[in-house]
Amino acid sequence: GEPCSDTTVRSMQVYLFVLKPPAFSTSTALRHLLYSFRCPFSLFFGERLTPSPIPLARSMSSLAAGKHCAFQLLLNPLTGESEWIVVNEKDDDDVDETAFSASRSVLAATSYLDMLNDSRRNRAFRLAIEKTITGPCHVLDIGAGTGLLSMMAARAMMECTARGEAKVFACESYLPMGKLMRKILRANGMERTVKLFHKRSDELQVGVDFDCRASVLVSEILDSELLGEGLIPTLQHAHDMLLTDNAKTVPYRAITYGQLVESTFLWKLNDLHGNEVGASDGIYLSSVGLEKIINAKPQQYAMHLNSLCSEMRLLSEPFKIFEFDFWRRPDSHGETYIWIKPTDDGKVHAVVTWWVLQLDREGSLLYSTAPNWVVSSKTEGEGVSVSRDTNVLFKAVHNATSVSYFLRDDKSTVCNSFQTHDCHLFLSPERIGIYGEKDMRSAFLIAVKNALQRLRVSPLCVVADDSILLTILAASLSETSKVISSFHGFQGKGCAYVQAASVANGFSMDRIHILNKSISSLQSDDTPWKVDLFLAEPFYHGNEGMLPWQNLRFWKDRSLLDPILSKDAIVLPCKGILKVCAMYLPDLWKSRCCLEDIEGFDHSIANETLGACGNLPPSLKGCFLAYFIWQCGEIKELSDVFSIMDFNFSEPLHACYGKIRMEFSEPGICHGLVLWIDWLLDEENSIVISTGPVNRYWKQGVKLLRRPLKVDAGSFIEVEAFFDASGGELTLEPLFPPP
């Protein structure tokens, strides 16, 4: 069978390698915690890369008096405050709008819609299920989602039994998704055929929830790393407690593959120390002496790498790493050793990995998350030097939920293990890249230095977000400044970090105060002093997946602190300019298109909940999506970049409105509008940091059109936007000229 791959659904993983000092033990594996997948391949780093959007909510569930409910944490991005929203197991007509909105904010940020729009994936699973179910049986679907696999199994069973009966049990522990699945089952006449449990699979009991063990398991609890959603412990419990001996499974097995690559871009996402040396600006964020105090998070990261093909050098052929059989109980621990012959001289900055699903026993139905270059071929932070004349030893270790990798040649051992201390901070790979970018560092350094020169002798500087760069700049560039930093997102680790960094940067901690809470708390302090310099990047640790305008929390804080700002206080950045560009985005539009018939099952009722955008009916409104545009497959700009709205941070927070006429500069098909914010760091507007698509470290906001629009050079649309200061939400409407 031809491997199935869709660049809009899952990501490969990147694993970065660091030269390991001889004193460290080579037996310590680095634990990886994984983002949910989005497109067909995955990446790994040794010290440290992306896209799964960071959800704005998390949930817990409980069972009371036989009724299920979920408690979902909903975050207000403008205030940073959160509240628990109760999601009850109610009738479909009894809708709690607040709970629905909270659920939608989470589900729209997942890959559910992307997967359901992957027709090759859906077809491969249908064929495998129909091939596996050839007679009466009991089927169990774990992590049922919308119930697609459950309905496929029920239909296959009904078609091969004399009386057309089926017995399918499905478990979906996330209550909002379970409620959606119940609606979909009802819409397809399957509500009585598929029995749904709002439970984890390890809470199911034979003899209590169903009469006997299941003889067929269908499931797709897979992420880009394969193991991150608990595949191994789930299969172990299922084989021990829920399945018959020799039970059939779909998928049948999964195989992981890897490839050694050299990539300057991936190296920048991993090695802040090396980039700081190149910047030569006298500011040190990454290390004290020889000890690194900032690293990328020690985990695997899902990315769309096809757009990096021309920038990467492949240093090996693809090699097989692990094989996981679904049809038998898996082991919690596994190791493999592979001697790899490099195909070229170079430095290994990362290992790109992916997996291939064998859906049927015979191996005729496959689904792959490999990058395009694999499909087409059918087969110290500086990286690890390799030579085509010398083999390198690759070691892979997995536990129940994660995988670690090691490289070894005759001279060194490379792995992803490192010792951590109280002062150690883990940042996202994009943040590592930003802090190592010479132009960005220079822009902030000049802006802060100029601002300090205009202020009184001992200025009070307030850093309103989690910016370690601005904290160190404010303390380093003035010998008399006093600095108060929020560092709310670092949960107590910020103070230890700054204390360690003060040694390398030559300032005293006597001038620094770390709040470890929102900067707005200063308004309640009865103090006589005034704030001279109010600073933000903005950067809120842990919320990097937000839409661009959801980073305006510092504007809200600046407004709350207005009474304690000095008469000549400087706010940096001074302004934010909301930019917009019309773009050709066929892959993204396809992946976020409205669902209709999926392998014979109506899913249209799921569109609003899952955040569908393309082909929306007039009664529904599409949501904004946060994406790294450079990872969205085929893209093309069809217009110039326009400024649609200004945010003036010298004024208190207020509503904003903008309307522009956008003229298309290129003919083509417009799928949507891409938005970002350019930050103006000085009043003269001479220092600008752009977060647009050309800069790969920031996500942009995307507003997909209801229908793709054919445009000609010189044609135009009008775009109207409104920013709501009360909730921090942006509404945007493209206004099309009459035909």
UniProtKB/TrEMBL annotation:
One of its GO terms (biological process) is methylation. GO terms for molecular function: histone methyltransferase activity; protein-arginine N-methyltransferase activity. Residues 643-721 form the Protein arginine N-methyltransferase domain. Pfam families: PRMT_C (PF22528). Keywords: Methyltransferase, Repeat, S-adenosyl-L-methionine, Transferase. The keyword Methyltransferase applies. SUPFAM superfamilies: S-adenosyl-L-methionine-dependent methyltransferases. The keyword Hydrolase does not apply. This is Arginine N-methyltransferase 7 isoform X4.
